[in-house]
Design goal:
By secondary structure, this protein is mainly alpha-helical. The chain has one domain (7-361, 368-405): Glycosyltransferase (Alpha/alpha barrel). It has 18 helices and no strands. Helix 3 packs parallel to helix 5, helix 3 runs parallel beside helix 14 (321-334) and helix 5 packs antiparallel against helix 6 (123-135). The chain is globular and about 55 Å long. The two termini are 14 Å apart. Residues 56-164 form the Prenyltransferase alpha-alpha toroid domain. Keywords: Membrane, Repeat, Signal, Transmembrane, Transmembrane helix.
Length: 411
């Protein structure tokens, strides 16, 4: 779920070029300095590529555990919307209207819908956002990361979650007679394939499907019509094991069985980044826990959550609000206590990254130069804006949906 700067990933630049909209030719505005960040924003890292995403996850996680998010933080999220209903990762000046160069995407938009729908009181915002999502649905029934981009499992699934959160029936949202479930079924690997039952991110150049654990976690939730929040105590929807996926429910069961088999060895997923294949992927493991819980695969979900409790604290501390939110949602889905997560109060840690905590720091003076330099080094490296799309197309473990969830990974 988290992006790591990688030379191997950057070699995929040519791939994203074909799918990116015309706005790809635009250069992003300079990254804001830490001092210039909005006071209502969660996290102190550069929001240029993940501001709306991490804000949405943070608010959703807080709401899920009964914490009322600060009103300014909610208002900031709602205020990021463009006039057509879409959301970009970050708009520093919301008084300036969005245009063809504004880098909106389906993932930020769908995440914002899920958060604002859960919080309530923002029907006009969510209705307009859902309208935009429907307007950019592909002919195969799915969605790509950007409007007009080829459908992928992750984007299609997060949009399904947004539709459900907004009171829509995803099966009834169709383009040319095809629903998002039709798109997901085409991305599910058959039982006789290598990686049986998994989901691919996208078909390869020759139409081949390659199992992707990140996409599989997303695909399980999407196929079940679920969003980012899964309530504990779900019962298995379909018989475990891989069978021909004639329905979305069976595709979800197959995907969950694949995840369970991959996790069985050591309790966690490993990174797909070149040169880091032997390293744990904390974020995608958390997403897998949520997906397994949604399917009712309680035992493997609980086992992997236990692994996260023992090992994910440092990763979350380095990665910030979205990482804390992912762990909270994983704990919630399995009925665990996020306030005592391996000895860490995830809720407290997430809240500490938010606007209330930032306000407490006022008047304490500027940081010394060494600390500033360290922070700048941490927040640097997000290069060109379509790095998000590059990671998605390359299928390199960018997490449930987008690369901007965290800027640094625990090795």
């Amino acid at each position: 779920m988290n992006v790591r700067r990688s030379a191997a990933v950057l070699t995929a630049v040519a791939v994203i070029g074909a799918a990116a909209p015309a706005a790809a030719d635009a250069s992003p505005s300079p990254s804001p300095s830490r001092a210039a960040l909005p006071s209502a924003l969660y996290g102190d890292g550069d929001p240029q590529y993940d501001g709306v995403w991490r804000q949405s996850l943070a608010l959703l996680a807080q709401h899920t555990v009964g914490v009322e998010p600060p009103e300014p933080a909610v208002d900031w999220l709602a205020g990021q919307q463009c006039a057509d209903g879409s959301f970009a990762p970050y708009r520093a000046d919301t008084a300036k209207a969005c245009d063809d160069k504004t880098m909106v995407d389906t993932n930020q938009t769908a995440a914002a819908v899920q958060a604002l729908a859960a919080l309530g009181g923002h029907d006009a915002v969510t209705e307009k956002a859902v309208g935009w999502l429907k307007s950019v649905q592909n002919e195969d029934g799915g969605w790509g990361y950007t409007a007009g981009g080829d459908s992928d499992t992750n984007s299609t699934s997060v949009v399904i979650g947004a539709l459900t959160a907004a009171g829509e029936r995803p099966a009834d949202v169709k383009k040319d007679g095809r629903s998002p479930y039709d798109a997901l079924l085409k991305l599910a690997l058959p039982c006789d394939a290598d990686g049986a039952g998994a989901f691919a991110f996208q078909p390869g150049k020759k139409g081949e499907l390659v199992a992707n654990a990140d996409a599989t976690a997303a695909g399980v939730l999407g196929s079940l019509g679920k969003g980012l929040v899964v309530e504990p105590g779900e019962e298995a929807k379909t018989k475990a094991g891989c069978e021909k996926a004639a329905t979305p429910e069976q595709a979800a069961a197959n995907g969950a069985a694949h995840l369970a088999s991959v996790l069985a060895e050591d309790g966690h997923l490993t990174s797909a980044l070149a040169g880091a294949e032997d390293q744990p992927d904390y974020g995608n493991t958390a997403d897998a826990v949520v997906a397994l819980a949604a399917q009712g695969s309680t035992e493997p979900a609980t086992a992997s959550l236990a692994w996260l409790e023992k090992n994910a604290a440092d990763w979350a501390a380095q990665s910030g609000p979205a990482a804390y939110a992912q762990l909270i949602l994983a704990a919630h889905a399995t009925g665990a206590d996020p306030r005592d997560f391996g000895g860490t109060d995830l809720v407290e840690q997430l809240t500490a990254t938010g606007p209330a905590a930032q306000a407490d720091q006022d008047g304490k003076g500027e940081e010394d130069e060494a600390e500033k330099k360290q922070q700048e080094e941490k927040d640097s490296g997000f290069g060109i804006w379509w790095f998000v799309g590059v990671c998605l197309v390359a299928g390199v473990g960018v997490g449930f949906l987008i690369s901007g969830r965290a800027k640094k990974r625990q090795p």
